[in-house]
Design brief:
This protein is of the alpha+beta class. The chain contains six helices and eleven strands. The strands form four sheets. It has a four-stranded mixed β-sheet. A three-stranded antiparallel β-sheet has the order 9-10-11, with no helix packed on it. A two-stranded antiparallel ribbon has the order 1-4.
Length: about 190
Amino acid sequence: MADQDEWSSNANEALSISFVQAGQQSPVKLSSFQPKFTYPIFGEEECIFGYQNLKINIRFAAHDLLPNVSVKYDKKFKTVGDTKALDIEETLREWLPEVSFETLAEFNHRIQYDTSAKVWKPPGKLIESYTSRGRNFEIWCGDLIDLVVRQLIDRIQILVSLFIEGGTPIPLDDADWSLAKWRIFFV
């Protein structure tokens, strides 16, 4: 059996989250940070087996929160009997929409050439505008019954489990759960 420490990665350290937007020639990172918790996704030990120098990047387009997952590593554990490396993309498919798994090149192209990004507005209704410390802010409100609002929530709600102790995503596809009763605010 392989040395567990040699092939194990701390999920909180391996995972990086960032927000990007179009740049001069390619997308640029606006901010990047590590999650506080990864146990809802990777288990109580917050450990991922099967990789050396593992780097998982979840990027979000700053305007419409389009996600992208990129997994890199130096070495992957070769299966021995029932012992195998965790399938990271398969694990994350339960937490992110399918569009998250297009190639990084496709994601970068989409971000760089998205003509709607500069004029993008949150869905719903503008309910307040204000200025603070020389910056302008807007508060928008929309219902979860709105498909665009639901798409934004679906794209970003993985962050609930990564930053809120015990936080779980809201069920957007449960027929018994009323989407009409929920209002979402965007700042």
